[in-house]
Write a structure and sequence with these properties.
The protein is mainly α. Helix content is about 55%, strand content about 0%. It is built from 71 helices and 2 strands. It has a two-stranded parallel ribbon with strand order 1-2. Helix 14 links the parallel strand 1 and strand 2. The radius of gyration is 36 Å and the shape is globular. Keywords: Cell adhesion, Glycoprotein, Membrane, Signal, Transmembrane, Transmembrane helix.
Length: about 1300
């Protein structure tokens, strides 16, 4: 291009648009090529850094650069190319230096300062200078996890050169270098749902441009500004990387950040907050109201994702800040001795440059803590929830305690109710406790509006509309309005309210057509009985398909609607299948097995759809996909809901050869064991262990034992991060490995263990410490021990374990002082061990501590059997007869009434009692279908509670009825039946007999789901069948499916003549308790109607048969297709067949999988109850490593004379669950040493840890391993000189001339 003095104006018209575009592309490619060259030659940057160091240190008069201001100007000897050359040839090094200095002087006398000033002018004047924080040990893991989500979203991973950034990061002491390192560790192949860019060249250029700019970022503010101006893909990865850094910056420098910087950091940190585990959740110490409000805005945005524990922590954090700011008091005075780690530490002067923005002063933090300690104690009932705080709390108001909600001043609550912020605060807050919701609604109704005009504010109630009372009195418009607001409600009374509103609409709007009714009812249409749903035409349903596909249908309703929509279709497209939404539960498996994988596999919509399907439907869909794609593509594209149904033989054919392919997938235990054996064999290292995710279920005790003893602590901490997926036997093996390794490192390790060493041991393993070692723990480790006890989950210990008592006794001894002097707070430091306290010890507490302890006991999942009677006596002594308890006492202590069935039965018939018991029933853990062994079973017996709820919901004796009036016999109605659900089992045969025929027809799908009717109840229900349909032989298949477990009332002859041709019907019936003769009759009915032969049973048929496969004759088992049996073995293993059938199934398994001594962990796991068909010799031949993988349901089925064939070592290897499943009858036939081994396997007898011989090798402190906590102080990265990037290219070009 011509010089400016020879060409006044550039001739832009000389090139055509096409030529200009080609020139532009040439420049882009050239720039990228140059960048690639420079990044592949890191020595160039080292030379340039030496140039700048020499220039800045010697060539600028009066400009002395300190190490603290510009550490990059003083590289370490190992980083300097000139330093290395000087060591070899000092004269040559000096000569080169003189040449370089002369070059830089000439350059500086020319345009250097012009370039520098221009660069300074280009810099934003007010650009934030938020310093980089110090990195915790697990930063890479946190950042990589977040960055992986960007890849899963479909964004292409930017390709960056790692070598240049690494050298830069070392010299600049910046975490930016880690960014490229983590990018390179992500998969480079794009996922199937990759978001394609419209202009790949522009995107590539943008990635390189960002890479260059990130290298020049010297603080957090620079990176955040760069991030905001980036395209969506790179921004996702940058934000994921910076999110943990931003949160750490807020934690370390929160008190000194200005509001603008805080808003920036919170925006970046949001992805980290969405995934932060509760154990790492810590809140900053700042108390500025503006800062707190900004924090709460972000927390409100992620409210739906946060665990309940974190929501409660945030509420306490806000309350403490408000107490300090508004009331000048403290809720929990902070003693100096109990300050968080690092608060009293001296500042680390080597970490942060002087004057860096956002670096906390340790002395200041200490002073703040001391000031907080000097604040007065807040009063017990501090009225802190003013209107301003209510606005700031937003959705967290839905997690307030009941007491807090009741103490909100009326004027503050009503003032808040009238503001625009009220309604958003109660949107999307599902999970709100019903009693809290009712309290809020009643206060608004009674205190902020008159009872008759609360309907004027209906649209402002948000989630509180779920607790509206008096729905029966609403007019048509209000009924429709309220119905539209309660779609997302899940409180116990909501179904009853929806039924009432639907009844209002149907009664008061008789003129509306079917389509209008479908639109107006919304999700409440699911309250309509089948007789009403069946009246809608397929056209009506298709016109409202988008809304119907979102409704939560019962299986019978979904079947009715799907049948209407699909009519006589023999095939269904993937698009049509997806359009059905929740109604997919009603699609026949015969249709699903013909669906094409195209358009479904790898889609998010497939995940949502398959989650609604039954086991048989998932199997049918997999069968269809398997015909279209190979095993590798199938496994790769399946969501977790379908992946769990993939057979081992399919996994064997799939290309899964690396643990990296296991991460983030929902593998079953059998699949995990199979894949780990396939990929790793019998040995695993720490790196592989950390990558397993849910596949950790397949780690065997043999693998744990083979881990190096020096890595045992790291192994334990890695397993602790996957504790949700660990079995009891894995936890036991890990604990034994860890304790033996620690004792080997230092004899008597636990007798003189330090606090830091105890803190490093995961709580889930610590509770398995041998009893004698628990007893001998030093008082010096009480602080760490008590902290660990707050984290423990005692469910991995058997209920009768001696360790429970030992842990409790040791924790009590750490409390010090007399029992009568202990405060409530002291006792609550016991954590879950409160549930193990002896009532005699509890009774010795002072009144405040006693009340607090009893309230804590109400949350216990298990209370020792020997403590229950005395505990209930203490409860009634303290609070009186439960019949006269107040509502407040009942809500705090009510669950303890389950200790005594008589107390539950005597509760008065009051409306609030019924509401509370309904809430209690919903809050209790769901009871497993197969109850666990007694030693691991919850103590809660809900039979008395269910009976009382049935009584309260069906009684006609109101509280104000005269006592002389006798209650009449209550008849089952559709409203009662739908409300009671499983409670319908308490209707008497007489009440069933007097039920109307229409009620029975409408309620059949609900009544048919109950599995435990008595013989008399079944006889009464069969009478209603005859009244409704005339004869059992006249029932069609839909009616049989709806009748469900009521079919147990049919005789063998009646069952054998049922019209059953569908596997879906058999799947519906398989959950019921049929006898063996009934199973045979049902199988014969299916065989006759469907025309299928035993040899023709495929995988789908074997899965669909369920328990009815037990109905085959012993000789027919041999006819089963071996290939299909291999695929369906897991489903067949669930069947509760008698011994003679189990033995024939075992023979089929031996013919298919080989001899039992060769069976692997995965194969034993899928065998299920078939294992109980093994002979004594075959049981004794099983490898000890596979015994923990036997399904516990199979253990009680093993004949006692065969169980004795197991050796002592085999009994020890059974694992806690299987050992606990041994029945008393089986146990009686065992020898003394076998029973002792069985007790040891359960955990009732604590084996002494074998301490191996210790060598003289000095072992480093194991407490130093593991993840460090987030530091409390941080520092900012150095600031580079503005404009230096502009000169780098010019220097680089001239440099080559000097070198050459």
């Amino acid at each position: 291009m011509a010089e400016r003095n020879t060409l006044e104006k550039l001739d832009f018209g000389a090139l055509s648009p096409e030529q200009q575009e080609k020139l532009h592309q040439f420049k882009v490619k050239t720039r990228i090529a140059n960048e690639k060259y420079l990044r592949s030659h890191p020595e160039v940057e080292m030379l340039l850094n030496d140039f700048l160091r020499l220039f800045l240190c010697r060539c600028i008069p009066g400009r002395a650069i300190s190490h603290r201001q510009y550490p990059s100007a003083h590289p370490k000897p190992s980083q300097s190319l000139f330093w290395r050359k000087r060591t070899g040839n000092s004269k040559m090094g000096l000569y080169r230096e003189v040449l370089i200095l002369s070059f830089l002087v000439q350059l500086a006398t020319g345009n250097w300062f012009n370039i520098m000033s221009q660069g300074m002018m280009d810099m934003p004047v007010n650009q934030s200078a938020i310093g980089f924080p110090r990195l915790p040990a697990d930063f890479r893991e946190m950042a990589k996890k977040l960055m992986s989500t960007c890849f899963k979203k479909g964004y292409q991973v930017p390709v960056m050169n790692n070598s240049l950034n690494s050298s830069y990061g070392q010299m600049m002491e910046s975490p930016i270098s880690i960014f490229s390192e983590l990018l390179s560790s992500l998969p480079q192949s794009s996922p199937s749902h990759l978001i394609l860019q419209s202009n790949e060249t522009t995107e590539e250029h943008d990635i390189w441009n960002i890479a260059e700019k990130m290298r020049n970022c010297t603080n957090m503010g620079h990176v955040i500004d760069l991030m905001r101006n980036s395209t969506e893909g790179p921004r996702c990865f940058m934000r994921a990387f910076m999110a943990p850094l931003s949160w750490m910056t807020i934690m370390q420098n929160g008190t000194e950040l200005n509001k603008e910087d805080l808003i920036k950091l919170l925006w970046v940190a949001k992805p980290f907050l969405e995934t932060m585990p509760p154990s790492s959740f810590v809140l900053p110490a700042f108390s500025q109201s503006s800062h707190m409000a900004e924090m709460m805005k972000v927390f409100s945005e992620v409210f739906g994702i946060l665990p309940e524990e974190q929501k409660n922590t945030i509420i306490e954090w806000v309350k403490e800040r408000v107490a300090q700011n508004e009331f000048n008091c403290s809720l929990k005075p902070l003693a100096i001795s109990n300050m968080p780690p690092g608060l009293l530490q001296k500042p680390n002067k080597d970490v942060s440059p002087i004057g860096a923005v956002g670096v906390p002063k340790a002395e200041g933090n200490q002073q703040q803590a001391m000031n907080a300690n000097q604040k007065k104690q807040c009063p017990p009932k501090m009225l802190w929830l003013k209107a301003k705080v209510l606005t700031m709390m937003g959705p967290f108001l839905s997690r307030l305690s009941l007491e807090e909600a009741k103490t909100i001043p009326q004027e503050e609550l009503c003032g808040f109710f009238r503001t625009p912020d009220f309604s958003p605060s109660f949107q999307n807050v599902s999970g709100m406790q019903p009693n809290l919701g009712r309290t809020f609604f009643q206060r608004l109704k009674q205190e902020c509006s008159s009872s008759d005009n609360i309907t004027h504010y209906m649209d402002r109630l948000g989630y509180l509309a779920c607790f509206f009372d008096g729905a029966q009195s609403l007019n048509l418009n209000l009924s429709r309005q309220l119905l539209s607001q309660i779609d997302t409600c899940n409180n116990p009374e909501i179904d009853k309210m929806k039924r009432q509103l639907v009844q209002n609409i149907l009664e008061k709007d008789g003129s509306s057509s079917s389509p209008e009714i479908l639109h107006s009812l919304g999700s409440a249409i699911s309250t309509l009985p089948l007789s009403r749903l069946s009246r809608f035409t397929s056209e009506d349903l298709n016109n409202t398909l988008s809304s119907l596909s979102q409704v939560n249908w019962s299986p019978s309703q979904a079947k009715t609607l799907a049948k209407k929509l699909l009519e006589t279709a023999k095939n269904i497209s993937g698009e049509k299948l997806l359009s059905l939404g929740t109604m997919v539960r009603g699609v026949a498996s015969s249709l699903l097995k013909n669906v094409k994988a195209e358009g479904l596999l790898g889609k998010e919509s497939l995940k949502n759809m398959s989650e609604k399907m039954s086991s048989l439907q998932r199997t049918a869909l997999l069968e269809a996909f398997r015909r279209d794609v190979n095993a590798s593509e199938l496994v790769k594209g399946l969501p977790d809901s379908l992946l769990s149904s993939v057979s081992l033989s399919t996994l064997e054919k799939a290309d899964v050869s690396s643990v990296d392919q296991l991460q983030g997938r929902g593998w079953t235990r059998a699949q995990s064991a199979f894949l780990l054996k396939k990929i790793l064999g019998n040995k695993i290292n720490l790196g592989e262990l950390r990558k397993l995710g849910q596949a950790v279920q397949g780690v065997t005790c043999e693998m744990i034992e083979k881990i190096n003893r020096t890595d045992a602590l790291d192994m334990a901490q890695a397993l602790n991060k996957s504790c949700a997926w660990l079995s009891r036997v894995q936890v036991r093996c890990a604990a034994q490995k860890l304790f033996a390794s620690l004792e080997e490192q230092r004899p008597g390790y636990f007798s003189d263990i330090k606090n830091s060493e105890l803190q490093a041991i995961p709580a889930m393993l610590l509770i398995h410490l041998p009893v004698e070692k628990i007893q001998n723990l030093s008082d010096a480790v009480c602080p760490a021990f008590m902290e660990k006890m707050k984290e423990v989950n005692l469910t991995s210990l058997p209920n009768s374990s001696p360790a429970r008592y030992a842990l409790t006794k040791r924790a009590i001894s750490c409390l010090k002082g007399n029992v009568t002097d202990l405060s409530a707070a002291d006792v609550l430091t016991l954590g879950p061990l409160v549930c193990e306290l002896d009532p005699a010890w509890i009774s010795s507490l002072n009144s405040a501590a006693l009340n607090s302890t009893l309230q804590a006991l109400a949350s216990c999942q298990y209370i020792q059997q020997q403590h229950r009677e005395n505990l209930f006596r203490l409860l009634t002594t303290t609070y009186g007869d439960p019949t006269y308890w107040s509502e407040e006492d009942m809500r705090v202590l009510g669950s303890l009434l389950l200790l005594n069935d008589t107390a539950v039965e005597k509760l008065p018939s009051k409306s609030w009692i019924m509401s509370y018991l309904s809430d209690l029933m919903v809050s209790l853990p769901v009871q497993p279908v197969v109850p666990p062994p007694k030693e691991f079973r919850s103590w809660l017996d809900l039979s008395a509670l269910r009976r009382k709820l049935f009584e309260l919901k069906t009684t006609t004796t109101l509280q104000n009825r005269r006592k002389r009036e006798l209650p009449s016999l209550v008849l089952p109605t559709i409203s009662y039946i739908e409300d009671l659900k499983q409670g319908n089992v308490y209707w008497t045969p007489l009440q069933f007999n007097q039920m109307t025929v229409q009620t029975f027809k409408d309620a059949v799908p609900t009544l048919g789901q109950i599995t435990n009717y008595s013989t008399e109840q079944l006889a009464a229900l069969k009478t209603k069948i005859l009244e409704a349909w005339g004869s059992v032989f006249m029932l069609n298949e839909s009616q049989i499916a709806d009748l469900g477990c009521i079919c147990q009332s049919f005789s063998t002859e009646e069952l054998g003549n049922l019209s059953i041709a569908s596997l879906d019907t058999l799947e519906t019936l398989t959950v019921c308790n049929f006898t063996q003769t009934q199973r045979t009759a049902v199988w014969q009915a299916y065989e006759k109607v469907s025309g299928i032969s035993v040899a023709g049973l495929g995988k789908l048929e074997m899965v669909g048969l369920g328990q009815f496969i037990c109905g085959l004759q012993p000789g027919q088992i041999d006819q089963l297709n071996s290939s299909s049996f291999r695929e369906a073995a897991e489903a067949v293993g669930h069947a509760p067949c008698p011994l003679n059938i189990r033995e024939r199934l075992k023979e089929k398994a031996v013919a298919t999988f080989g001899k039992p001594e060769t069976w692997t962990e995965a194969q034993v796991s899928i065998m299920g109850n078939i294992i109980a068909g093994l002979s004594a010799v075959e049981l004794g031949s099983l490898n000890s490593t596979v015994l923990p993988f036997i399904q516990p349901s199979a253990i009680p089925l093993i004949p006692s004379d065969r169980l004795t064939a197991l050796s002592v070592s085999q009994f020890k290897a059974l694992g806690p669950d299987n050992a606990a499943a041994v029945t008393e009858a089986q146990r009686a036939g065992l020898k003394v040493d076998q029973r002792a081994a069985l007790d040891e396997a359960v955990g009732l007898k604590t084996a002494r840890a074998e301490v191996p011989t210790v060598n003289n090798t000095v072992i480093s402190n194991p407490g130093s391993g593991g993840s460090a906590t987030l530091p409390l102080k941080g520092g900012a990265a150095v600031e580079s000189m503005a404009g230096c990037v502009l000169i780098v290219q010019a220097i680089a070009l001239l440099l080559f001339g000097y070198i050459l």
